[in-house]
Amino acid sequence: MSKNNYEGIHPYVVNQVRYHARSLMRHSAIHGVEVEDLEQELMLDYLSRKQAYDPEKAKWSTFADRILNHKCASLIEAARAQKRGSGISDFSLDAWLEDKDGEDNALPDPATEDLTSRDLQIDLEQAVQQMPPHLVLLLVDLRTLSISEISRKTKTPRSTLYGTLSELRGSLKERGFAEYLH
């Protein structure tokens, strides 16, 4: 049982955050993380995104569920990447500035870092930020689910999803990612 207290936050959100945190605890990729920490990650993500809610697009509960599902998927993906030893590491520019002995071992080694994939990642993040929310949601879902699974999950006809997928591909082509689409 979590010791976190979320006064002033809608009980539905609190219940969903706790549910997703407990589910994450049982996932094989998540190790060594306390349920309170996962709840805080999920709640922080929800609170930072709740301003984007548009009642004309979906019910509030659907919006909250989507945020929490996507955050869970990104936490699982990050945990799996860490297991694979993806080479992605966080660093602080402040640590580099405070280092008085001239060593910069807090910074990534440019000789071993894959700059092409990092540049591609930055370009893709910028392109995604400019896309309409319905395309971003589909893109996020496609990282872990098939069209059929997304259709069942969202109760959206596959034909509608294929139309949205076509729109997503067109948007990515316009932004210079045609060579990465197959």
Describe, in plain words, how this protein is organized in 3D.
- With 182 residues, this protein is an all-alpha fold.
- The protein is built from eight helices and no strands.
- It has helices at 11-25, 35-49, 60-84, 93-98, 115-129, 133-142, 147-154, 158-174.
- Helix 2 (35-49) packs across helix 3 (60-84) and helix 6 (133-142) crosses helix 8 (158-174).
- The longest helix is centred in the middle third of the chain and has 25 residues, at 60-84.
- The chain is globular.
- The termini are far apart.
- The mean pLDDT is 82.
Largest sheet: none
Low-confidence stretches: none
Classify the beta-strand content into a percent band: under 5%
- Rg calc: 19 Å
Number of helices: 8
How many E strands?
0
What's the helix-strand series?
Answer: HHHHHHHH
Shape category: globular
Average pLDDT score? 82
**Terminal Cα separation, in Å?**
46 Å
Q: Into which percent range does the helicity of residues fall?
A: 55-70%
Which class do the helix and strand fractions yield? mainly alpha
Write the layout of secondary structure elements.
Blueprint: H1 11-25, H2 35-49, H3 60-84, H4 93-98, H5 115-129, H6 133-142, H7 147-154, H8 158-174
Helix pairs in contact: 1-2, 1-3, 2-3, 6-8
